[in-house]
Amino acid sequence: MSRYAQMFQRLHQRAEGAFGGFLMLGDPDVATSVTLLDAVVEGGADMVEVGIPFSDPVADGPVIQAAADRALRAGVRVDDCFGLIRQFRAKHPAVPVGILTYANLLAARGRDKFMADAAGAGADSILVADVPSIEAAPYAAAAQAAGLELVMIAAPNTPEPVIRRIAELSGGYTYCVARAGVTGTSAALALDHDRLFAMLAEAGAPPPVLGFGISYPDQVAEALASGTAGVIAGSALVKLGADARALVQLVSAMKRATALPNGERER
Amino acid sequence: MKHDGRFGRYGGCFVPEILVPALEQLEAAFLEAEADPAFAAELEELLTTYAGRPTPLTRCRNLAAGTPARIYLKREDLLHGGAHKTNQVLAQGLLAKRMGKRRLIAETGAGQHGVATALAGALFGLETQIYMGADDVARQQLNVFRMELMGAKVIPVTAGGRTLKDSVNEALRDWTASFADTHYLLGTAAGPHPFPTMVRQFQRVIGKEARAQVLAVEGRLPDAVVACVGGGSNAIGMFSDFVPDEGVRLIGVEAAGKGLNGHEHGATILRGSHGILHGTETLVLQDSDGQVSDSWSISAGLDYPAVGPEHAWLKESGRAEYVGVEDDDALAAFQALARSEGIIPAFESAHALAHAMKLAQEATEESVIVVNLSGRGDKDMAQAVKLLQPEAA
Asked: How many domains in chain A?
């Protein structure tokens, strides 16, 4: 059973939603990045999502763009990122790790080699932000060959045929975006996801995890009440910079908010 | 999608899933418009009575004197707006109206595509926002003023390297949140499907006219057709109708900047490698990890680290050839055309011209060369003064 499947099973037994914390690898430098990744686990994150910095991150808002810029300016290379994942895997053998990055980094390294190196470092999944379902088939095949799960994105405007492709090609979890636009914190979430979650379940897609704009513990509870299996916070964590203490505190506050109300457990 | 937008192994549609419905809507609207005589008629009327088509094909009287070559210029510089860009902003503006959009966004480098989009916004009554690198906003005050005069709002981009590629990133980010009421009027034959195909179709009027004009005056097809390539819209527009004419050499001229052996150039086809940028699989200037490099050219329009996917394919298939022209040679051609013909070309077009002059010099027998003079040089005057009369600037 994959680490994601084990995690969802464990959380289901505890009547909790999953909390995923996102950080940009190598932000602000490789050494600090090690400490911050540990802090996310210490705070209680169930899964960790890591960005491999790219020069032109079109799906990201200002906070994560700035994180990628800092990492690249610090001279962080793709090999350093795989090194960070390898270290993380050695320390935290059960925590699922997903890579979030962009297609050009795969093209440059060779798609198959990138996937194999990611899996070899200990990653569980990869989400390529600018590879939509219509381009995903060769990525899914390469991921499968390497032993990685390909995570795909679904949004409230995603039509049903695409949901079926996501069910067919993807694994781990389904990254559901909480609103249109790029990553980043926002005051209000548009939680108009009932139809999307129903279609995903109907198609047999991997469990939905909601991201893009989760900033406060209250939003975590609100999102889980809307029927998602988990949430991912990125920009809110990245904004804290190199303050590992603050990161532990925010992650633990968000993780506490993943306890499902009584009766939710059997849903 | 009806089509996969592939040119050999290049092209495709590499955007976040959330944008795919917007591109599907655009493809559907484009295919429907292409099949609709009413769309063609309205575009034709605008191109004729507003933009000034057809543009002439001018034989250079002096530029190639003493060589056995005859150089013809396809005069896109005479279009309203000053460059070939007007052809496609009118077409995309009409499409935006058909789709019921109320707002246009666009990226611009030094401002040419921004100005073109602003004119379409004014003409069609669409709110218009232009993303432009913060440094360019400061450097290109006149173009910023032109856009504002036509009612557009210019948004300085401070992200990344503040260059054209960062402006494309910002426009794409805007569009992922705004596509319900906004059309992204991409400026070149690059980006995700259907843009490369659509922009080519809207620009191929250049080559269609040029082919008929050269046949009429010479009674035969040219030996070579030459156009500059940044993103590649003027070149693809010029080349397309000549592609089946196997005897006609198609030559794309890239910005070799300060030299192809350094890093300060925009020669994506000559020096780039396989990659995926701004929605399309193509050739990209990048490092070995895939981090995209900053390009360089004296001409803002050629200063882009990727290229339209159809050019990558035309190169790979061998149908077109690509060469580089350095800043200094482009500047010399810029002066030569002004001096010998009384025509001041855009710095971009001067790259194509420089290569055509080289072909003429090297010609050993009678030959006919058609150059796409894609734009006029008015926009480059301030920069030209600085370069040519540094003591006066």
From this structure: 1
Q: A234 lies in a domain?
A: yes
Residue B326 has a pLDDT of 98
- Residue B136's pLDDT band (cuts 50, 70, 90): confident
Whether chain B has a CB inside 8 Å of the CB on A157: the answer is yes
Span B80-89, mean pLDDT?
97
* Nearest alpha carbon to residue B73 among B304, B306, B377: B377
- Spell out which residues of chain A touch residue B12, defining contact as CB-CB under 8 Å: 135
A40 touches chain B (CB under 8 A): no
Q: Do B276 and A103 touch (CB under 8 A)?
A: yes
Whether A249 is covered by a domain: the verdict is: yes
Q: Please determine, for residue B331, whether its predicted confidence score (pLDDT) is greater than 60.
A: yes
Cβ separation A109–B290 shorter than 8 A: yes
Tell me the pLDDT of chain A averaged across its residues.
93
Cα–Cα distance measured from residue A143 to residue A151, given in angstroms and rounded to the nearest whole number: 10
Clarify whether A60 is annotated catalytic: yes
Report the chain B residue with the minimal C-alpha distance to residue A81. Answer: B289
Q: Is the confidence at residue A176, as pLDDT, over 50?
A: yes
- For residue B347, which of B362, B364, B371, B328 has the smallest C-alpha distance? B328
Asked if B322 contacts B251 with a C-beta cutoff of 8 angstroms, the reply is yes
Instruction: Calculate helix-pair angle for B195-203, B85-98, nearest 10 degrees.
Output: 120
> Average pLDDT of A78-91?
98
Write the pLDDT tens digit of every residue in A25-56: 999 999 999 999 999 999 999 999 999 999 99
Is the pLDDT confidence value at B201 over 90?
A: yes
**CATH number, domain containing residue A167:** 3.20.20.70
What gap in Å lies between CA B318 and CA B59, rounded to an integer? 29
Query: How far is the alpha carbon of A126 from chain B, nearest alpha carbon, in Å?
Result: 14
* Residue A266: inside a domain: no
pLDDT in tens, B366-381: 999 999 999 999 999 9
Nearest-CA neighbor of B20 among A138, A122, A254, A131?
A131
Enter the ipTM. Answer: 0.95
Flag whether residue A110 sits within 8 Å of chain B, measured between CB atoms: no
* Residue A164 within any structural domain of the chain: yes
Chain A's closest residue to B276, CA to CA, is A104
Is the Cβ–Cβ distance between A229 and A267 less than 8 Å? no
Give the 3-state secondary structure of B230-290: CCCHHHHHHHHHHCCCCCCEEEEEEEEECCCCCCCCCCHHHHCEEEEECCEEEEECECCCC
pLDDT of residue A190: 65
What pLDDT, on a 0 to 100 scale, did the predictor assign at position A267?
A: 43
Question: B72: part of which helix (H) or strand (E)?
Answer: strand B69-75
Question: Phi and psi for B382 in degrees, rounded to 5?
Answer: -60, -40
Residues of A with CB below 8 A from B312's CB? none
The boundaries of the domain holding residue A209 are: 3-8+18-255
Pairwise CB contact (< 8 Å): A56 & B160: yes
Active site residue A192: no
Instruction: State mean pLDDT over B176-182.
Output: 93
Residue window 271-290, chain B: list those with CB within 8 Å of chain A: 273-279, 281, 284, 286-290
For the cut 90, the answer to whether the pLDDT of residue B140 exceeds it is no
CB contact under 8 A, A108 and B286: yes
pTM: 0.95
